Amino acid sequence: MLAHETIFSFRSPLGRWMTTFVQEKRALGYRYETEYNVLCRLDRHLRKIGLDSEQLPRQIVQHWTAVAPHEKSTSQGVRLRTIRQFAKYLVRQGIPAHVPAERTGPVRCSDHTPYIFTHDQVSAFLAAADRLKADGHAPLRYLIMPEVFRLLYGSGMRANEVLRLRVADVDLDQGTLTVLDGKFRIDRLIPVGSVMKARLVAYSATVGQRAPDAYFFPAPDGGPYDASSVYTIFRELLWKCRIPHGGRGRGPRMHDLRHTFAVHCLERWYREGADIVAKLPYLSAYMGHRSLAGTQRYLRLTPEIFPDVVLLMERFAGTAMPRTVAS
Which CATH superfamily is domain 119-240 in? Predict the structure, then answer.
């Protein structure tokens, strides 16, 4: 069963309405995972404050949607949007609920400027991953993490896409990875290079034969690794490589390995004299972007490396330089 098919047993007085609300959203084709997690937190909050009837009063809504200290605008925006949708759903069911106003003013798509690793930093980071030691609590960790981080950088896959690969999704003969139900509900086939293929073959042989539905990179309990657990290792490796970290929310983030893949790919094509404009659609499909505009934004990260790319961007996308980078 896919993670987004599971619905938590909500236990607040509004729990049954949360359940049917999430079911309705998913029946319409939305993944509704981030919003679902927001509702889980809201459900716990309603129980904690002792809500004892089927209603969603203004005071509770205003408290829940207030900006928390040091919170990013995007996080508060997700919480506001989710409770607004849920409140409107309650009203349609005849349940008293305060519907908060939509947030006004400019909304930034990202508060983070991607950190682009240098080639030397990538080499040092992967070498440090290769030196991880066997751990009694996670006996396969020292085998798994070098391949996970290589896929994050070498293929530009998202962390959850790598961590949720099943044995059946990895074709070791063809050297391809199948991502099912990725972000934006996009399925895609990802070919890997000969070196990465050889590493995955060696890793699989060491781990041994497993069922097709088993996770290719299993956590100690047999399930998928949690991204936060991998992030902890990521931070440890940054420290070992003396790559500075700016603190929470400032990076480098693990997701910046994906951004680095894209920029290094553009850099390589530039040096090879390739037609970058013609190749952008291939990079877009490979990375699972919803549109070419998402991939085009990586061009704004290259001017410091290649000033001529500024002229290329103006020819391809006009003079307005995109302000954010797609995920």
Answer: Intergrase catalytic core (1.10.443.10)
